[in-house]
Write a structure and sequence with these properties.
The complex is a heterodimer of chains A (178) and B (189).
Chain A (H helix, E strand, L loop, with lengths): L5 H4 L7 H13 L1 H19 L9 H47 L2 H36 L2 H32 L1
Chain B lengths: L8 H23 L2 H17 L10 H20 L21 H19 L3 H13 L3 H8 L3 H34 L5
The chains are: A mainly alpha (178), B mainly alpha (189).
The structure holds zinc ion.
Chain lengths: 178, 189
């Protein structure tokens, strides 16, 4: 049996008189739609008859204490924010004072060319370091004897372990006194 | 209902006192758990307190509070993707203030549990629309205002929710009759 559009009409708020009549005729013939209609009515009844649930006594007092805590936390946060703002303002002022005194002694073009020169120099240095590192990694393993590697690696491992252990000891001491 | 336009912590507690039951009920129906509902309703009142300057006094205060609560719960549900509620919460449920007679208490608890299971089948937005319609008798327009939806969207949500609830109810009943039948069947070895 085709249940369309009756299955939809069962949950439609506004049906025309004609639609309502057609639906009633279909409901008389169709057990499946009748069951769905009954289920719809039962869920509506459940929803309409269900009493509201209340919280445990003292809700307003709990809210008031929570709100007081939150307000205090917000005030603290605002003070912190104000401090950060003031500090950044002070830092900016000092920087701008320094820059203005610097630029009064040097021309902007001279400062810019100096910056560009230094940047290029830095890049050049970095490239050289990377190249020498690569060279060491590719050439050295074949030049140094096998036993030497074992000694170097064992030494490195020992010092790493010693370093980690001392850091761990130090931090656990701090925790004890905290 | 108290008409307050400017607010401080002291006079807002009066608003909390007057409205906490409906707000809590909405959160409970949305989240299905008393402790989550308590947190959500506390948070709702905090948000309302912080944003009280946005409240339009020509609108109902309760509707405004319910709107904040519904949005908060929808966000919570989306965050947690909470789909199932554990049955052991059944015992912790806080009953309404007017405690009913023991016999009716049993049926009320059972119906509450059935309702809770049914409501979990709905999408958060649809659940909010259904709760606002059945517990607070809000009109389509009011629900739309609360959930920031058009009237046609509210209608379609309510329609979809009712249909889904009926199907879920049928399935639930089918499962419970199957369970009973299974219990009555002779044990075969
Ligand atoms: Zn049919």
């Amino acid at each position: 049996m085709n249940h369309n559009p009756f299955e939809e009409w069962l949950f439609e708020d506004q049906l025309t008189l004609e639609e309502r009549t057609q639906l009633n005729v279909h409901l008389k013939e169709c057990a499946s739609c009748r069951a769905l209609s009954a289920a719809g009515l039962e869920t509506s009844r459940l929803l309409s008859n269900s009493a509201p649930v209340s919280p445990a006594a003292g809700f307003t007092d709990r809210w008031a204490s929570l709100a007081t805590d939150k307000e205090a936390a917000e005030q603290k946060k605002q003070v912190r924010l104000l401090f950060i703002l003031l500090a950044s303002f002070a830092l900016l002022s000092i920087t701008s004072l320094f820059l203005s005194s610097y630029f009064s002694d040097h021309s902007i073009m001279a400062v810019l060319s100096n910056v560009i020169f230094n940047a290029l120099h830095l890049i050049e240095r970095t490239i050289i370091i990377i190249q020498s590192y690569r060279f060491v990694l590719t050439v050295l393993p074949f030049r140094i004897p096998y036993l030497m590697w074992v000694v170097v690696m064992a030494n490195a491992a020992f010092w790493m372990a010693f370093w980690s252990l001392s850091i761990w000891k130090f931090s656990s001491l701090k925790r004890v006194f905290a | 209902m108290t008409q307050i336009t400017t607010v401080d912590l002291n006079n807002f507690t009066q608003i909390v006192e007057e409205n906490h039951r409906p707000v809590y009920n909405l959160c409970y129906r949305m989240l299905g758990d008393p402790s989550d509902a308590e947190d959500a309703s506390q948070e709702t009142f905090w948000k309302a307190y912080r944003n009280f300057h946005r409240y339009d006094p020509t609108r109902s205060l309760l509707t405004w509070l319910l709107s904040i609560a519904a949005h908060h719960c929808i966000d919570e549900l989306r965050k947690r993707k909470m789909k199932t509620f554990s049955i052991d919460l059944f015992a912790d449920e806080v009953l309404p203030d007017q405690a009913p007679l023991p016999e009716s208490m049993v049926s009320t608890n059972l119906e509450n549990e059935q309702l809770r299971c049914l409501l979990t089948k709905l999408q958060p937005d649809d659940r909010a629309a259904i709760i606002m319609r059945y517990w607070y008798s809000l009109s389509d327009e009011e629900i739309g205002e609360c959930l920031h939806l058009s009237i046609s969207a509210v209608k379609s949500r309510l329609f979809r929710a009712r249909k889904l609830l009926a199907s879920a109810w049928q399935r639930q009943q089918g499962e419970s009759t199957a369970d009973i039948r299974r219990q009555h069947e002779p044990q075969s070895i």
